[in-house]
Amino acid sequence: MIGPGEERTTDAVRPYVITGGRVGSARAELALETLVSASGSAPDPSLQPEYRRIVERCQGLLSVAEVAAHLGQSPAVVRVLLADLIDWGHIRARPPVPVAEHADMDVLRKVLDGLEAKL
Amino acid sequence: MGSKRNSDVVSVAGGTTVSSSDAAAVGTTGGPGAADGPDAAGKTGAADGPGAADGPGDGHSAGAGTGAGAPTADSSDPAGPESPEGPADSSDVYVSPSVSGAAKILVVGPMGVGKTTLISTVSEIKPLSTEATMTQAGARVDTAPPSAKTTTTVALDFGRITLGGELVLYLFGTPGQHRFLPAWKDLARGALGALALVDTRDLSASFDAIGHLEDLDVPFTVAVNAFPDSALHDEGELRTALDLLPRTPLVICDAREYRSSLKALISLVTHLIALNTAPSPTSPISSVSPAATAAPLAPEPS
């Protein structure tokens, strides 16, 4: 147990300093499976290195989860940084296949066909 | 009771945002590596540990247990195929540019049941590891006092399958213990469905995961991961023990085998399609027998 005054680890805070304390903005939250890639517009060299690292890593299409895993960052942090980069035009997102309540029939059929083709 | 394992504590990765309750749990089990119970050791690769020892090389996770995460069980385990050593081919890192969308399926179950094994069996990339964080709790980190922190971090292994060149399917391995439920909500959002892995040698270990799926209304198929020493069970007995609805498919698979794992996923997706086709997929009781529901059994407001 951690008492109120005790700081167990500074790691608990540091990632959020990168994001200016923001986690989860008002913008539609990026899902872990949302695909992102660099748009080709080069980020300002004065940007925080965390931003630049993401843009460098996104030279091809990757999911938010993959970006986080490759960079060793928490997805919660990566989501915020990616959302900024999307706003600034450095990253483009392809939203996950829209799933309303449960799955969309068309998506399910594509998944089924795709899996069966791999048998 | 014996099934109430703490072993998933091993999976608490990185330690970026460990809640006080999780910290306590770490204490009780002696920390990563010590946590894996003996009965998990014999299972398929104990693959649910943060097996992604390849882990993200930089950043915070380097210190906190990537090494400790490799359960000792690995060495004595016959399940070779799920741990391909060496870096993934870098040309395969990125999703094909032809892909226009992504979908996800959860692979759930207790520690050691073979989630990561199944994912790595079917994944086109070496499974990666990241963490699931309870997002709304994180939002308060900068304002709330430390005692109010409720952020929970759960290691999450995932893999990827490109389907038909235009769709990519992500499989997220999700630990199934009760305290991880908050992280599940985030993960379950947008998931097509879930494959619930079960080990017949310890059915009760899967109760939490199956309960979470039901609570969150995530449709699922149960896949019994057949371990070499698993006793053969009658399907009816298994269904009763797991308290499954009649329409919930139950399949047997070998998470180490590609075709077998793929077939389990196919069974799930076939089930999802059937649910989508059925008139009232979310009210199983009434959909089983429309006639029965017509009976005027509704309690009258006195």
Describe this protein with a few key phrases.
heterodimer, A: 119 residues, mainly alpha, 3-stranded antiparallel sheet, B: 302 residues, alpha/beta, Rossmann fold, 7-stranded mixed sheet, 10 helices, globular, disordered N terminus
Account of the 3D structure:
The complex is a heterodimer of chains A (119) and B (302). With 119 residues, chain A is mainly α. Chain A contains five helices and three strands, in the order H-E-H-E-H-H-E-H. Chain A has one domain. A three-stranded antiparallel beta sheet of chain A has the order 2-1-3. Chain B is of the alpha/beta class. Helices cover 26% and strands 18% of the residues of chain B. Chain B has a seven-stranded mixed beta sheet with strand order 2-3-4-1-5-6-7, with helices on both faces. In chain B, helix 6 links the parallel strand 5 and strand 6. The N terminus and C terminus of chain B are likely disordered. Chains A and B meet through helix 1, strand 2, helix 3 and helix 5 of A and helix 1, strand 1, strand 2, helix 4 and strand 3 of B.
Q: Any chance you could write out the topology, listing elements then pairs?
A:
The complex is a heterodimer of chains A (119) and B (302).
Chain A: H1 14-18, E1 35-38, H2 49-57, E2 62-63, H3 64-71, H4 75-87, E3 91-94, H5 105-117
Helix pairs in contact in A: 2-4, 3-4
Chain B: H1 20-29, H2 38-41, E1 101-109, H3 115-122, E2 128-133, H4 135-138, E3 153-163, E4 167-175, H5 181-188, E5 191-198, H6 207-215, E6 220-225, H7 235-242, E7 250-253, H8 258-277, H9 284-288, H10 290-293
Parallel strand pairs in B: 1-4, 1-5, 5-6, 6-7
Antiparallel strand pairs in B: 2-3, 3-4
Helix pairs in contact in B: 3-8
